[in-house]
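Re-run with default settings, no changes from the original entry. Doing this only to confirm the output is reproducible before filing.
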Amino acid sequence: MAKFPRRFFLVLGTFLLSVLLYIDRICISVAKDPISSDLQLTDTQMGWVLSAFALGYALFQTPSGMLSDRFGPRKVLTGVVAFWSIFTGLTGAAYKFITLLIYRFLFGMGEAGAFPGIARSVFSWIPMKERGIVTGINFSGSRLGAAFALPFVAWLISTLGWRYSFFTLAAIGFCWAVFWYLWFRDDPSQKKSISRKEKDYILANRQQVKAGEDSSLTSKKLFGSKNMWMAMLQYFCSNFTFFFTLTWLFPHIKTEYHLTAVNAGFYAALPLIAGAVGNWFSGWLVDRIYKSGRWRASRRIPAITGFFLAAAGLIASLYMTSVGPAVLFLSIAIFGADMTLSPSWSFCVDIGKKHSGAVSGTMNMAGNLGSFITALAFPYLKAWTGTVSSFFIIGAVLNFIAIVLWLFMRPEKSLEEF
């Protein structure tokens, strides 16, 4: 029997990290009611708690990506997972609004290092023609983790209480950090258990760095790139749609359709499962088109298709009067939004190369400014207008803007070239 490729263990490890990342992240949404009751918080205060995470997450994307580029994803991912697990646990110890706000901001700071670190490891370990599906698998873990967390955490909170639920998740995070530090190495050439055949295959087929592209990354080089700005703006649009599922979808359908917490958890999990499928399909499509020799189309076609579905799903959901059809169209919207992830992150590794941690982190920073706005926009727009329609219309408009941006993005051009 052929030896199982060691790079697939890397994908398993990053997939599990993505699962953990979103279980820890969405737990606060599921625990909204008991937390609000115990700490006497209003919906707008909870909106600030959710946004505090998104702000910390956004602001530390580029710095954490630069750390992964400089010190390697082995040390950085170990450190950031341990760091955010500390504040996952401390969330369960919060007794005031201000402490909860601070803990969630610091928790977001820690989680900021996850996907940039994963992107940097993908550059070193994954051949170009496997980049799309590996990125899709990694992001599907985040959606499956969130989907699993909705009913599971609802059950966990009803069994242990919300405080001990956060303590339990913190312990799981520390276990992953230990595993990663012991198993992973920053470059396949440093991994003793990998076969010579696989090592040579990876080194020959991963993206190569041209002369001059290995120089230090400056702010001028990063923000002087048209590709970088368009990647940031389109990811802002994508996250505006998706982050709703991690923050307000669960409490929204629970209240709107008078569901129990566990039933709301199952319904709210469906769009996330659709998102996982969207990631798999898009990752497969990215690689399929790339293998036909169309590099630019392999990023552009899946992204544009995804943004169109996201806009259509959001608008259609406004006309539904019962939970089943509404969740169905929201699932189509999230399927589409998540189709944009594999081309977006593949695009960042394409143009960033050895600086892919910083480039992907910068894109994710802009995206999570969209998340920050989403967490606040939903409750405030609902309070001002008395309806959620305006929120979904804004989301649809942003998706159409992203389609236009993708028509001008060029993955074959490095930061210096475009």
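The radius of gyration is 20 Å. The CA atoms of residues 58 and 365 lie 4 Å apart.
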